[in-house]
Design brief:
alpha/beta, 6-stranded parallel sheet
Length: 522
């Protein structure tokens, strides 16, 4: 279904009420219209500038997109590269955290919890996963992740227990009660080494809740960032039955050739959060506004402004138009990862007419296991794995620590796997021109925008890009290295870490002492 194009005439109508209020309201609305128009015109000029001066038609090589991006000698590596002592047997106390949000927001919080435990020299209690109202799922950490693998993988980094043990004194047994603290958002390391640590030493245990975005993302310590990667990409492994189910779905999809996975973020919660209501009928707008009122902070959001700056999720039709302009045809096989699409089939029909070979985890899963839990954490976990292993992944909306951001980071770490990441802000004026009847040159304009995006290769992280979206270069090494900091760790780094954990001498490998010493001295 097409969005309505911009229509500014209604902004100039005199509202009911006094003359002063009417004139003031008119100027406010006119100012908004002018701002939006300027943004769109600047974006359109930038997008089409290269088309105007280039006689050649831009082309996107689809064959290369079905393969991983060029690595430039880089490979994933999150092992320590400098002196990394094992966790001490006696720690400062226990750290409990409650990770709120959806599956992937919780995943980022778990990474932060492990790092916080390392920073405070604390014993981490297995993180608690919030059974929130959206997911209606109380599986918990043990129901989603492989606990034994998690603890074993991180044994060189932190001590982890499943629960705070009881202590015995003078023949009596008692529980340690964790002191409850609410960390500041994006708290610096200093907060953990001062206030949090002080309370931990005083009470023996602290309970940090809520724990979403409660540790600064950008930390000037590559070893700490690499620890986050070890948690995210190595320690956090889904339970065997989820991994097996995911593999069976991917095997069935791949048996018929290449496939693409699209995270179609067109659900009620995201549309309400983004404030993108105007393409819907009045009744649907009321539902979205009520959801926003109940679940999000009050904020005035103007649809035209939000869309102009790229803050509205792409509609299913817009996704189809982008893919078609890039050269994908109706034989392309697409796996759709999403919850319940708001507006239903009415909004999917245009996309389905362009790309009829659509699948999701319930249509591919012939065991019926997921039919009962398509909105739960298990369904989200399977979608995550299928999108991770897909030949191409395309998110339609990105936000802090969500499904798309984490997946883009994981696919980068997994071997620079192709990601189609639409620049919504640059595409908006192209779509608006088409909606207003100026369809000539639409496909070319879309290709120009897409050729300016990154398809999954190594690239510098620039704000607001998240560390969880792009952990390069901290969690990668290069062969041959152009920079000493990017030298890959020795092949027997695991033996070194195990030796130190057991308290014995480092294995006599001539390359290791000099390697560690040289990096430690820098």
């Amino acid at each position: 279904m097409r969005r309505h194009g911009y229509r500014y005439s209604h902004l100039l109508k005199q509202p009911n009420g006094g003359a002063g209020g009417g004139v003031k309201g008119m100027f406010v609305k006119l100012a908004i219209a002018v701002i939006v128009l300027v943004i769109c015109m600047l974006s359109l000029v930038t997008t089409l500038k290269s088309s105007t001066f280039s006689p050649s038609r831009s082309e996107i090589n689809l064959e290369t997109l079905w393969e991983s991006s060029a690595s430039g000698g880089w490979r994933p590596s999150s092992d320590p590269r400098s002196d990394w002592p094992p966790p001490p047997k006696k720690t400062n106390g226990y750290l409990r955290v409650r990770c709120n949000g959806g599956l992937n927001q919780q995943r980022s919080a778990i990474c932060n919890a492990v790092l916080a435990a390392r920073i405070m020299n604390a014993t981490l209690v297995l993180p608690e996963l919030d059974a929130n109202s959206f997911w209606h799922d109380d599986s918990g950490f043990q129901g989603i992740y492989d606990v034994e693998h998690f603890i074993r993988t991180l044994r060189y980094d932190v001590n982890i227990v499943e629960r705070i043990p009881e202590i015995s004194k003078n023949g009596k047994t008692r529980k340690i009660k964790a002191f409850k603290l609410e960390p500041p958002r994006d708290a610096p390391i200093s907060w953990y080494t001062s206030k949090a640590l002080e309370k931990m030493k005083e009470h023996g245990a602290i309970y940090l809740t809520p724990f979403s975005h409660r540790l600064a993302e950008e930390i000037d310590n590559p070893e700490y960032q690499r620890l986050r990667c070890r948690v995210n990409y190595h320690a956090l492994r889904f339970k065997p039955h989820i991994m097996e189910l995911s593999k069976s779905i991917v095997d069935r999809l791949r048996a018929r050739g290449h496939f693409m996975a699209i995270h179609l973020r067109f659900e009620m919660d995201m549309l309400a959060f983004a404030g993108c209501y105007d393409i819907f009928a009045t009744k649907e707008q009321e539902i979205l506004k009520e959801y926003r009122k109940v679940n999000f902070a009050k904020k005035k959001l103007v649809y035209e402004e939000r869309r102009a700056i790229g803050k509205c999720p792409l509609t299913p039709e817009e996704v189809g138009l982008i893919l078609r302009a890039m050269g994908f045809d109706n034989t392309t096989r697409i796996y759709i990862a999403s919850g319940e699409l708001f507006g239903g089939e009415r909004y999917m029909a245009p996309f389905r007419s362009m790309f009829p070979r659509l699948e999701n985890h319930t249509t591919v899963d012939n065991t019926g296991e997921l039919a009962k839990s398509t909105r739960g954490l298990v369904g989200a976990a399977v979608d995550y794995m299928v999108c991770l292993l897909a030949d191409i992944f395309m998110p339609t909306y990105d936000g802090p620590s969500n499904f798309a951001n984490n997946l883009m980071g994981h696919r980068l770490y997994y071997g620079f796997r192709t990601t189609i990441w639409p620049d919504r802000k640059a595409l908006t004026p192209v779509f608006i021109a088409r909606e207003n009847g100026r369809a000539s040159g639409f496909d070319e304009a879309v290709r120009r925008v897409m050729l300016n995006t990154n398809f999954g290769g190594p690239h510098k992280r620039i704000r607001p890009e998240s560390f969880y979206t792009n952990s390069w270069p901290e969690c990668f090494c290069q062969t041959p290295a152009q920079n000493p900091a990017d030298v890959c760790p020795p092949k027997n780094i695991s033996e070194i870490l195990e030796s130190r954990l057991q308290g014995s001498e480092i294995i006599d490998d001539r390359s290791i002492p000099s390697y560690l010493a040289s990096l430690t001295d820098k």
